[in-house]
Design goal:
This protein has about 240 residues and is α/β, with parallel strands linked by helices. Helix content is about 35%, strand content about 15%. The relative contact order is 0.13.
Length: about 240
């Protein structure tokens, strides 16, 4: 019998990657506004979370709040509050929440930026992600375990940014689909989250990486932005010559 896990924001980019990557090993409960399930609807959320071992919280209204527009959408914060409270009430053991590399400014940083100090966000969006992390610290004082993952750049096509069109730090913060899925599996399969709370940087093993990916779950990224660029270049040459 498969372990049940819920995913909020299941129809987004990371949610789609995880549904595909976790399908064989877990029974997935998808939760998304596109499916008619709103995380802001507290009672419906509780009913969806019951009987799940873990919830992966990805839901976020990026149209109203993102890195570029410098807005704060109170509904994103309320979704986090609802998620933690509903997970506790539904007796979900483990909450994995999507923070961001933008929770701590990393441009111009020398390797390696760890999670062991007070973060300084690079935007209001990053500050809102810190709120989600610190709220998780509060709920982790109960029996629920919380893991905040500061995701790097995940894109639908699993395409590594080229060296020519991205700053070094952004290219170093790319996260492949494979590394994304392997990290979540490590967190889900762990017997225990140390002290009920952890913050992890999630980026691939890229040249120019400035983030420390140390973690208590034994996860190590395997993919590299450079290698993906080389593979893509070779494929393009083969296609042009065929």
């Amino acid at each position: 019998m498969k372990v049940k896990i819920a995913i909020t924001g299941s129809e987004g980019v990371i949610g789609t990657v995880l549904k595909k990557g976790l399908y064989d090993d877990y029974e997935i409960t998808p939760i998304d506004i596109k499916l008619g399930i709103d995380v802001l609807d507290y009672q419906t959320l509780i009913s969806k979370l019951r009987d799940n071992f873990a919830v992966i919280h990805l839901a976020w209204n990026s149209q109203t709040e993102n890195l570029k527009n410098e807005n704060i959408d109170p509904e994103n914060a309320q979704m986090a509050v609802n998620l933690y409270k509903a997970a506790r009430e539904a007796k979900v053991k483990r909450a994995i929440v999507a923070s961001s590399i933008h929770a701590d400014s990393f441009y111009g940083t020398k390797p390696f930026l760890s999670t062991d100090h007070t973060p300084v966000p690079d935007s209001p969006y990053g500050a809102d992600k810190i709120f989600m992390e610190y709220l998780g610290r509060y709920f982790a004082k109960s029996d629920m375990e919380v893991v905040a993952i500061r995701f790097g750049g995940v894109n639908p096509g699993n395409v590594s940014p080229s060296l020519n069109d991205r700053p070094r730090e952004e290219r170093g913060a790319w996260l492949s689909h494979g590394d994304c899925v392997s990290l979540i599996k490590k967190v889900l399969n762990a017997k225990k989250v140390p002290e009920n709370f952890a913050v992890i940087y999630a980026v691939s093993d890229n040249p120019g990486r400035v983030h420390d990916v140390s973690n208590p779950f034994g996860w190590k990224p395997k993919d590299s932005a450079d290698e993906f660029v080389r593979i893509s270049t070779r494929l393009k040459k083969i296609m042009r010559s065929s």
